[in-house]
Design a protein that fits this description.
about 625 residues; alpha/beta; Na+/H+ antiporter like fold; Rossmann fold; six-stranded parallel sheet; four-stranded antiparallel sheet; 10 strands; about 5% strand; ion transport; antiport; transmembrane; Na+/solute_symporter_sf; NAD(P)-bd_dom_sf
């Protein structure tokens, strides 16, 4: 065991973030790595036991973390996303949830051997998937937009519904089995659920109004949101257990659809908090399990129950619910398979295991084992299969990661054409229809709109693009774009045209160059120079490095005015040249550079210019 509680907290944090890094580095499902890590340090080797170490603080910490995670997920649920999938999400969250509840309860009774009362409680709970497990899978699998939206909305909306169904089932059972039935408790359940929704909506509207009117300063906005989320969850949960999840979901959706710019600014902060909480809480939960619980999951009735839930109950409920919704067969197949359970299932089942046992249901003792079995099997199966299945069903983003080029000008047009030749998709974005005339004439993909506009976020599918290059004629705007999208694309994937210019004063250089992304290519080549080289006939050339012709030989042969633009690794990985991120070409890399024209090309260029002058 660890020497102190502080040391254990440190270990949990390191293991959680370390698991996320390992998953990113080796392209593994993060949730799987975290589950295995927690089991190894907890029940298998006995290094830590968070539940024992934290004592009475264990459950409140888990509950508060789940509330923040669920709120952060619901903050991404903009109604504008529902175009084309609204009917599917509604049907899955209502009809699909009901079918899954009934079928899951029947399976729990006839296969797992639970009493009807316990089966209907746990059947309601197990319809949940949840953002704690869905979001990490969606980040790594790169699904196409429609199935990704369906899985994301379902995971967040159904989470509180599953918990409420479990509470509702328990209240119904208590009412039916009571010697002197009293419907007051049932009415309290519906009243508490309504109160939770109204409370979440009211707090969301109130917080949004305070943000819009400036009643909360910028430096307090993120802390205020976290505190209000915990208040919202606790206030609703004190009225009736598990309604807090419904309340924070309502609050998040309300804020997400108010169109408040500061909410968008804080979204990245809350995503970081969510990643940290998911990492640490999942380690805590799996490390707190007992060895007996793990060993019992291999009993025949539990294995049979899990297999039926995965291969029969989930697919059947989704296929029935999505009839006539417009989803293709492949999309229904993918959504019908992907349903990993996570933190909410583990925490809420622990609560009901205690409540049902106190009510005299002896078979409730198996709930923790049953829940863990469903969680671990679905996490492993769905975590490792989502990428493969998405590719098989043609529902994953294929090809190399693309590039968003902000600014339409002769250089970005030619760069877009160059990227297309190496099978890298590129999209030019500009808010000037006049500037886009070059793109339209050249036949390259383009989007008419402002990169910072909310409309662009809603209408432009940015999932295929991993790199962003800001190359407009407004250097301050380039820096603003890079600053805005740094959290989303990552510091190594965001670039801007060099802001340096001989006519600038030192202050302008210092401010603009230090704000935003990395300088593209070399600070000696601002956008006007790049455009000038294109107009003077410079061409894009591709060269493959070999053992006989390495990078040093390549540089020695090139004209001094050559600009190294980017390289393509044999794996297909794209790397842009930048002074701030040293790119070291290796054997087998394809280097694309902007080079002076040959004599023949110069003659052709001169003739074209002459003809153009005569025509004018």
């Amino acid at each position: 065991m660890v020497p102190s509680l502080l040391f254990e907290i440190m270990i949990i944090g390191l293991l959680g973030i370390g698991s996320q890094w390992v998953a990113w580095r080796y392209r593994l499902p993060a949730i799987v790595v975290m589950a295995i890590t927690g089991l190894l340090v907890g029940p298998i080797f006995g290094f830590i036991n968070p539940e024992e170490s934290f004592g009475p603080m264990y459950s409140p910490i888990i509950s508060a973390a789940v509330a923040i995670i669920l709120f952060e997920g619901s903050l991404n649920l903009s109604f504008s996303e529902l175009r084309g999938v609204g009917k599917s999400i509604f049907r899955i969250s209502t009809v699909g949830a009901f079918i899954a509840w009934i079928l899951g309860s029947l399976t729990a009774h006839y296969v797992a051997g639970l009493s009807w009362a316990v089966a209907f409680v746990i059947g309601g709970l197990f319809i949940v998937t949840g953002p704690t497990v869905i979001m990490p899978l969606l980040r790594q699998s790169k699904l196409k937009a429609r199935p990704a939206k369906v899985l994301k909305w379902e995971g967040i909306i159904v989470d509180p519904i599953g918990a409420l169904l479990a509470v509702f089932a328990f209240e119904i059972i208590t009412f039916i089995t009571a010697i002197d039935p009293d419907g007051t408790q049932l009415l309290m359940f519906f009243a508490a659920s309504l109160f939770a929704i109204i409370l979440g909506w009211a707090l969301g509207r109130g917080l949004g109004w305070m943000f819009e009117t400036g009643h909360i300063p910028e430096f307090l906005k993120s802390p205020a949101v976290v505190v209000v989320v915990i208040f919202c969850f606790t206030a609703a949960d004190e009225v009736m257990h598990e309604t807090g999840l419904l309340s924070v979901t309502a609050m998040g959706i309300t804020l997400a659809n108010m169109g408040i710019s500061s909410i968008s600014d804080m979204r990245h902060f809350k995503e970081n908090i969510s990643v940290l909480l998911i990492s640490t809480i999942f380690i805590m939960l799996t490390a707190s399990l007992e060895m007996d619980t793990i060993l019992h999951i291999f009993s025949p009735n539990i294995i049979g129950y899990v297999l039926l839930m995965m291969f029969a109950v989930r697919p059947l409920s989704i296929f029935i619910a999505t009839i006539g919704t417009g989803l293709s067969f492949n999309e229904r197949a993918l959504v019908g398979w992907i349903a990993p359970r996570g933190i909410v299932a583990l925490t809420v089942s622990g609560y009901f295991a205690t409540v049902l046992a106190d009510a005299g249901y002896e078979d409730a003792s198996i709930l923790t084992t049953l829940t863990f079995a469903l969680v671990i099997f679905t996490v492993l199966a769905h975590g490792f299969s989502i990428g493969w299945l998405a590719k098989k069903l043609d529902l994953s983003m294929t090809g190399n990661p693309g590039v968003l080029l902000v600014g339409s000008n002769p250089f970005t047009i030619e760069l877009s054409k160059s990227l297309a030749k190496v099978n890298v998709p590129a999209m030019i974005i500009d808010s000037s229809w006049e500037h886009l005339s070059i793109a339209r004439k050249s036949g390259v993909p383009f989007y008419y709109g402002n990169m910072l506009s909310e409309q662009t976020e809603h209408h432009l599918d940015t999932i295929p693009y991993e790199y962003l290059l800001a190359a407009t004629d407004d250097r301050a705007f380039n820096s603003l774009i890079c600053t805005t999208f740094l959290p989303e694309y990552g510091r190594t994937n965001v670039f801007k045209a060099s802001p340096y210019n001989q006519l600038d004063n030192g202050y302008a250089k210092g401010v603009v160059s230090k704000v935003g992304g990395r300088i593209l290519f070399d600070k000696k080549f601002p956008l006007e120079i790049l455009i000038g080289k294109i107009e003077s006939g410079y061409v894009f050339r591709q060269t493959t490095l070999t053992e006989q012709f390495n990078f040093e030989a390549y540089k020695a042969e090139k004209d001094p005015s050559t600009i190294f633009l980017y390289l393509i690794k044999p794996s297909g990985q794209l790397k842009f040249f930048s002074e701030e991120m040293r790119t070291v070409p290796a054997i087998g890399d394809k280097i694309v550079s902007l080079t002076p024209p040959t004599k023949e090309q110069a003659k052709i260029q001169a003739k074209l210019e002459s003809n153009r002058t005569l025509n004018e």
